[in-house]
Amino acid sequence: MPVITAPLDSTSHQDPADSDQLFPIREVSRLTGVNPVTLRAWERRYGLIQPTRTESGHRLYSKSDIETVHRILDWIGRGVAVSKVGKILARDDQQATVVRSEQDTVEDAEWPQWQARLRQAVSGFDDRMLERLYGQIAGTYPLSVAFQNVLMPLWEELLRHRSQFGQASEWLFYDAFLCAQVAQRLHLACASPAPRVVMAAIPGECRELELLVAALLISRDDLAVKVLGMGQPFDELTLVCEKTQPCALVVFSNHSPNHDLHRRLNRLALTMDCPLFLAGAASELAEDDLAGSSIGCLGNEGRLMQRRLRQFLNGQLDT
C-alpha cells in the first residue's frame, strides 16, 4: 500500500494548474499527499511516472505528472492494485485519444476557462451564477463533452481536496447542484413513451453523481434510462425488473471487481427476462472474467457506453 502524507495548507505555494513549470518531489508530495518514497517506487518498480532529471539527478515533475499521480490515487481508491494501474492508465490514454479525435471541432483551451468560472461560482456558493454557467456549457457542447471534459473534472478535483478546510463544503455544494440538474434531465426523459433501461449501482461502489451522469450519457431520444435509488439491494433487482419490464438492466460500479462479481452477475442474468449489462470502471476491469457470458460490458466513457448499448440491443455486438 502506498504511504500517504496529509496535504498541507497550499496558500503559500504555487498551484501547478497556474504554471507549466517543473516541480521538485517535495512539492509534488505536498500537492498530492503521496510520500516521496512512494513516488520513487511508482517510478522505479512500476514505471507509472517518468519525471525529468536535473544534471545533479534530482527529479522534476510536470503538471501532467502530477495529474498522473492523482489518476493513480483514484484507481487505488477504487480498490485496484498499484501493480495493475499502469495497464489501466495506458488504456485510458488510448481511449482519450480516440475521443479527442472525435471531438476535433472542440477547442481544448476553452475547458479550463469554463472550469475557472465554475470554480469561482462554487467558491462563492453562488447558485445563480452556477446555474447560468451550467446552462451556457450545456448549450455550447454535446452532453458527453460538457460533463466529461468540463463539469466532472472540476467535481473530481474538489473531491480530491475535500479534506482541506472549506473544500468539503464547496464539493458538497457543487455535487448537490449537479445531482439535481442531472436527475431533472433524466426525469423529463423518463416521462416520454420511449422504451426504458433500468440502471442501478452496486451498493457502495460509486457515488450518486457518477451513476446519474453515466445514465445521462447512456440515454438517447429513443431510449430513456430509469435510475434506481442508491443502496438498491442487488438481490432485489430481478423483482424490480419483473414489475417494470425494462428493455435492459445496467449495473454500474466504479470499484475494482471482487472475485465473486462475475458469479453474482451470471446468477442474476439467469433470473432476468431482459439483457444484463455492466458499466463503469468495473466493466473494463471485469471484461476478461465476463468474456463468453451473457453479460455485456459497456465500458466507462459516455459515447462508448451509449454506442455499445445500442449495438448490443440491436444484435450488432456479442457479449
Radius of gyration: 21 Å
**Portion in beta strands:** 5-15%
CATH topology of the largest domain: Rossmann fold
* CATH architecture annotation name of the largest domain: 3-Layer(aba) Sandwich
Specify the biggest β-sheet: 5 strands, parallel
Q: Which consecutive residue ranges, at least 5 long each, have pLDDT under 50?
A: 3-14
Report the order of strands and helices. EHHEEHHHHHHEHEHEHEHHEH
What's the CATH H-level homologous superfamily of the largest domain? Cobalamin-binding domain
Mean pLDDT comes to 87
Number of helices: 14
Q: Tell me the span between the first and last alpha carbons.
A: 35 Å
Structural shape: globular
Share in helix: 40-55%
Overall number of structural domains: 3
Neighbour order of strands in the largest sheet:
5-4-6-7-8
Structural class, by secondary structure, is alpha/beta
Q: CATH class of the largest domain, please?
A: Alpha Beta
InterPro entries: DNA-bd_dom_put_sf, MerR-type_HTH_dom, MerR_fam
Keywords: DNA-binding, Transcription, Transcription regulation
GO molecular function, one term: DNA-binding transcription factor activity
Protein name: Helix-turn-helix-type transcriptional regulator
